[in-house]
Amino acid sequence: MFGSYKPNLTGRPLGSRVCPTAIRLVFLVLGAIFLVSIKVDATSIVAASASGRVLIAADSKIVHEQGRLPGTACKIIKVGNAFFAVSGFESKFYDLNPWEDAHVASLQRRNVTEIAKAFELRIKPKLIRTLLRMKKEDPDTYKFFKGEPLQGIFAGTENGTPIWETIDFLSTESSRGEILVDSVKMRCPGDCSAINPVNYTFLGHRRAIGEGHDRSPNILEGPPEKVLALLIEIEITGESYAVRPPVSILSIDMDGPRWISPGVCGNQK
Questions:
Q1: pTM for the complete prediction?
Q2: Domain span at 252
């Protein structure tokens, strides 16, 4: 439809739960998180790495605390020398704000690798405290969030090379009931296939994308900016309760960031 691209899809198989060894298998699905007890990014994010550039696309829907109507917000945020997007939950009640932690992590750090590492170290203990408290105070909500409470992606340039790095935070319980949080990271280029011209990864909602790919595998062919727009639009159509336009698409190459479609993100540089 868009050309002769044969992209590679990174991640774990459709329908799977958390499994560190599956992170590099084909076709990623990250658990859809959609509750009304706290603020939730009911998010669909798709990233691509191709031809000396990386791209991130995201929808704009935000689900607020109970009693407030859903709203829209930019989900691709400039943090220091990188851009950041996240799928998961944010709660003043539980004192968990990944956006703020990404900003703090970016201070006095030079590149994607350093910012992502600082973010990982900063938010891990907060996730443990949040999950422990949630398990005790709200077991039903805990059942939804345990397993993979947060997934983030940082993108920018390092030594003139555009890259993105994803962090998937995975929680487990020990035999004594302790909460353990591990993380699985993937860099592209680096961990992605060097053979395929395009590599994609997914965070958040992608059920409709998976079903669309099953029906028409060629939806992944073509220029990546068009593929990303199409995939998010498919998810918006299929899961409108959780994903909403406008779609924001950011491209980063050797010359820096450029908004292909700013959506509600303005023109952050």
A1: 0.82
A2: 8-261
